[in-house]
Amino acid sequence: METSLLLPNHAEMAAVQPNVSLVQRVRQLLLIVHRANPILSWPAWLHVGLLVVALVSIPLDHRLITGANAWIKPAKFAVSDIIYLWTLAWLLADLPAAAQRAVRRISWGVAVSIVVEIVVIYTQAARGTTSHYNITSPLNGILFGLMGIFIMLNTALIIWALVLVWRHRPHGSAAYVWGMRWGILLFLVGSVMGGMMIRMNAHTVGAPDGGAGLPGTGWSTRAGDLRIAHFLGLHALQLVPLVGWLLGRYIPRRAVVGTWLFALTYAALTGFLFWQAAQGIPLVAAR
Predict the structure, then answer these.
(1) Which of 98, 155, 160, 262 is least enclosed by beta carbons within 10 angstroms?
(2) What is the pTM of this model?
(3) Is 97 exposed, middle or buried, given 0-12, 13-18 or 19+ CB atoms closer than 10 A?
(4) What does each of the 287 residues of the chain score in pLDDT, given as a tens digit?
(5) What does the alpha-carbon distance between residue 176 and residue 250 come to, in Å, rounded to a whole number?
């Protein structure tokens, strides 16, 4: 039996009680997302459990990988994947019924891809070694290659999703629809940047990976770091549709133009940060 996906979600979103606490409101929104696309929501909840594992492990396991605690990277990837899975579930639920069979297939493919990637990341952290760009042994090379295969699969599926949001108009205002289209497109740009890092077998330009970095992110403060533009591109999936939705709700007459301006500015900033990193220039230089 196929899992049913519910749509649209705007009516349910409007039904969220405005006078409840923030925790209750978040709970209501998560329930909406889960009903809209359980195929993507269940892996997100799996990541919540994995995030707890990483956070508990940080103070207990003092091993360092490229200069940082072994469990910092798994925790960051778990958070990023949670946001990605729930966002994609929400956006795809806004596609009309004619597109939902394709949405189901995309959802299954993305869910499997993300779970495989996070399992490799956690496995390598538990082994005390790096997950990305690690070809120091046959096993490490196989695991890194496996991640690469599923990253490419995920990218191909998001290209399919981009085609769908052009062929089938999603529910919502025109600004929100344009925000969704731009957000998915810029996400793909960020994915291509990630592919370039895989091809280089590193994310730092002008120095080895690791070493001094910005607190929390680890972005290099002594050389260029391609992860910055990669991060910005990937999170266009959340920011650009959100801006489109906000503009469509509060300034509808200028919402489409505003969404385009925001998306183009966002794209230019992402491109500039990529160029800057490719020249070996850090975002913030250490003193």
Answers:
(1) 98
(2) 0.87
(3) exposed
(4) 334 444 444 444 444 556 667 788 888 888 988 998 999 999 999 999 999 999 999 999 999 988 889 999 999 999 999 999 999 999 999 999 999 999 999 999 999 999 999 999 999 999 999 998 888 899 999 999 999 999 999 999 999 999 999 999 999 999 999 999 999 999 999 999 988 888 887 888 888 877 777 887 888 888 889 999 999 999 999 999 999 999 999 999 999 999 999 999 999 999 999 999 999 988 888 76
(5) 12
